[in-house]
Amino acid sequence: MTTTPEHQWFKSSYSGGSGTECVECAYTSHRALIRDSKSVTGPVLSVRTDAWLHFIDALDEDRPR
Q1: Whole-Å CA distances, 18 to 14, 15, 24, 42, 47
Q2: Which parts of the chain are beta strand (E)?
Q3: In whole angstroms, how far apart are CA 55 and each of 15, 21, 49?
Q4: Which pTM does this prediction carry?
Q5: Where would I find the H helices in the chain?
Q6: From CA 57, how far away is CA 64, in angstroms rounded?
Q7: Burial code of 26-53, b = ≥16 C-beta within 10 A, e = fewer?
Q8: Tens of pLDDT along the chain (65 residues)?
């Protein structure tokens, strides 16, 4: 998928602070985009927004409290 400048990328809150495992996300009207922040011109994973939000919710349910 080709990204454009209007995508508002943000770092995942699950990414570590050491700078070695950062994931960035952006949303379009119907898709969630995911990429490696160290390779901004590299591949981008594109999934339906509802599927991505379901995935994030599942991660939150499994997180130890």
Answers
A1: 12, 9, 15, 21, 27
A2: 10-11, 23-27, 31-36, 45-48
A3: 16, 19, 10
A4: 0.71
A5: 49-62
A6: 14
A7: beeeebbbbbebeeeeeebebeeeeebe
A8: 555 557 899 886 666 666 666 888 999 989 999 998 888 889 999 999 999 989 888 887 766 65
